[in-house]
Please model this.
Amino acid sequence: MAPLDVDGSYELTVRFMRTSGNDTVGIVLPVGTKTVLLGLGYGGNRSHGLDRVDGKGGGDAANPTVLRPARIENDREYVAHVKVIVHGDQAEVFVDLDDKAIINWRGSPSAFAMYKGWRLPQSNRVGLGVSNGSACFLSAQLRMLSGEAKPLRPGGVAQPEPPPKGPDGNPANFFGVPFDKLRDRPK
Model:
């Protein structure tokens, strides 16, 4: 979880590499008062998409954001660029993966629901994670287009909070990467 409260429109660029496993690399995105999971290599590495749009999962063909077939290869670096625009009770979510447009969604953020295993304690925070594997998140850059991103701690110094428990119940491995390995880049 990023140590910021995000309120407004923004661009987020995440460089990552999945190092093991065959499932979702996820980016949790605040969109207005809701959050949505961007799943890359979703559902056993079969699709990309926003999870739980009008009740449709990231692998459901009825979900308008699903791109299938779509894969994430292990030990390969990727760059996901996300743009979230919020205007009143409507929003837009655009996603490029390695400079290729993969998602262009418009509608009410009320269409989004979060699967319990990916839900963060607060809906206005960005999260990075992986399901059934591990990943190295090489960088994440947030640029506000409107609104603001506030550090979690007063004085402008963001201090990390203890991680919440993940789907496996292990707080030290919530993002699929042991916290002591988050800064280590695979060789």
Remarks:
- The longest strand covers residues 10-21.
- Helices lie at 42-45.
